Amino acid sequence: MDVAAVTRQNRVYWEAIAAGRLGEPVEFFRAGGCALSDDELAATGDPAGLRVLHLACSIGDECLSFAQLGAVRVVGVDISPTHLATGRAKAETLGVDVDLREGDLTALDPELTGFDLIFISGGGICWVPDLDAWSRTVAERLAAGGRVVISEHHPLWEVLTVAGPNQLTVTGDYLDPTRRGYSDSAKAPQVTLGMTDPLPPHTSFVWSLGQVVTALLGAGLIIRALREVAQPELYQGLGPAAGALPAAYLLVAERPAAS
Ligand SMILES: C[S@@+](CC[C@H](N)C(=O)[O-])C[C@H]1O[C@@H](n2cnc3c(N)ncnc32)[C@H](O)[C@@H]1O
Questions:
Q1: pLDDT digits (tens, 9 = 90+) for 89-143
Q2: Which of 24, 78, 83, 190 is the pocket-test mutation for ligand 1 (most atoms within 8 Å of CB)?
Q3: Which member of 29, 142, 180, 200 has the greatest number of CB atoms within 10 A?
Q4: pTM over 0.90
Q5: Which atom of ligand 1 is nearest to the CA of 57?
Q6: 152 lines ligand 1 (CB under 6 A)
Q7: CB of residue 220 inside a 6 A radius of ligand 1
Q8: DSSP collapsed to 3 states, the chain
Q9: What is the pLDDT of residues 31-69, one digit of tens each?
């Protein structure tokens, strides 16, 4: 696979839809709102004093929250200049110091290193074409004892489609990560719902839990926690069983202190 070509194509896709993704308004942050969920904060621990790198940071909402919670350095990397411009405008209005920079999460600037926390969430890891290479990069960019927190859609949810009450169909391949477009529109970025014009082609990757764990272990990281959680609203129409399936997961892995 030509990783650079995949990423170039995906950038065109994201730029086609980015203008409609605004995230939380500045009033939300002014009023003390936090873009990180309670589950995410439980996984990251208190960000105060940490050097944080958020990969695929999009419009930077979580970066703003990390900074407001006292992180000493917050860098967000995203491939979409439009998303970053939205985030920078919010940061400027709020007077919050975050470094939102254009970049590819598979080819990070060499100076982006020594982080206590690397964070990726909510449809970020699916843009990684080579999970082993990415995991090695993450491990290299963590300070000794630093942690990566992955807060993601569950890969099982990614391949299941609600067909009716208590009925699911398999619309993806759990074992083959490469996904061209979306066969279930509920898995596409929410902003695309209702868009009628054809969108640029794009390729994402549904990484299974086994593939994620194996790649992180292979990069020398220690898995500290892996929690699967229900989000019944993501299985809308399924009925009561919607709460009986995982829809998301949170994984914490650590770079050994001596490495
Ligand atoms: C669904 S968002 C996830 C981020 C955030 N949780 C959110 O919901 O806004 C996916 C983000 O990944 C970015 N992205 C896609 N491919 C990327 C790459 N190779 N490097 C960095 N960012 C990338 C897109 O521009 C987009 O902002």
A1: 999 999 999 999 999 999 999 999 999 999 999 999 999 999 999 999 999 999 9
A2: 78
A3: 142
A4: yes
A5: 4
A6: no
A7: no
A8: CCHHHHHHHHHHHHHHHHHHCCCCCHHHHHCCCCCCCHHHHHHHCCCCCCEEEEECCCCCHHHHHHHHCCCCEEEEEECCHHHHHHHHHHHHHHCCCCEEEECECCECCCCCCCEEEEEEECCCHHHCCCHHHHHHHHHHHEEEEEEEEEEEECHHHHHEEEEECCEEEECCCCCCCEEECCCCHHHCCHHHCCCCCCCCCCEEECCCHHHHHHHHHHCCCEEEEEEEECCHHHHCCCCHHHHHCCCEEEEEEECCCCC
A9: 999 999 999 999 999 999 999 999 999 999 999 999 999
